[in-house]
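User: Here's a structure from my thesis project, written as structure tokens. My advisor, Dr. K., wants to see whether a designed sequence matches the one we expressed. Can you design one independently, without my sequence as a hint?
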């Protein structure tokens, strides 16, 4: 994706943390002559070879899985908070814009089975069940019940080859306008506006070189 230099986040560990916190992504593949996208939870893990991978699964009722051939190139999009920025908040004439955080991951997909599949499901459940009052564990499920459900899914891993991130947070604005945008966002009191305001403060840096 197109990312101007002052919107690019080169802190890879911070970007990985964003992926972990915003793990409901969009898996995009080329199915014959048609692009196909599926919205699914994904877990960022470290493979045995030390490389970063995304683990997930989709229903076999979804024809997208039939095109998962080893090393097929895929795109995964992780959208984050986003919000409208009114140009009325500037001290000069300008146009409105949109602030947002988004990450795109490019990699090669492969089907996983057996113990690797089970571990993938376990890690996914453990991640999202950890705050439940009565967390569900895959180890507590009857074997026959588990195997019946596994038959209906196609599990996979995406070996990450490239990560691109866009943190468009008004970094190109001077201190007065940057601060005023934050103040106006906080008046809205909705999640995305407040989150973008927080991220603007966190990622404030110098103006880009002319």
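Assistant: Designed independently from the structure alone:
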């Amino acid at each position: 994706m197109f990312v101007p230099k002052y919107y690019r986040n080169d802190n890879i560990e911070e970007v990985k943390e964003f992926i972990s916190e915003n793990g409901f992504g969009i898996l995009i593949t080329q199915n014959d002559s048609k692009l196909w996208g599926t919205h699914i939870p994904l877990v960022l893990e470290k493979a045995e070879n030390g490389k970063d991978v995304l683990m997930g699964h989709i229903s076999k009722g979804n024809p997208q899985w039939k095109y998962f051939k080893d090393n097929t190139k895929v795109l995964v999009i992780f959208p984050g908070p986003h919000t409208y920025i009114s140009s009325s908040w500037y001290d000069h004439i300008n146009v409105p814009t949109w602030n947002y955080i988004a990450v795109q991951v490019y990699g090669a997909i492969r089907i996983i089975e057996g113990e690797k599949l089970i571990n993938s499901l376990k890690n996914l459940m453990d991640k999202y069940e950890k705050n439940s009052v009565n967390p569900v564990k895959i180890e507590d499920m009857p074997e026959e019940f588990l195997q019946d459900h596994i038959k209906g899914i196609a599990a996979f891993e995406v070996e990450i080859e490239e990560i691109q991130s866009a943190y468009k947070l008004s970094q190109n604005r001077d201190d007065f306008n940057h601060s005023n945008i934050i103040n106006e966002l906080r008046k809205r009191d909705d999640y995305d506006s407040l989150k973008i305001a927080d991220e603007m403060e966190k990622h404030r840096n110098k103006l880009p070189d002319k």
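When you compare it with your expressed construct, this may help: Residues 114-129 form the longest helix (16 residues).
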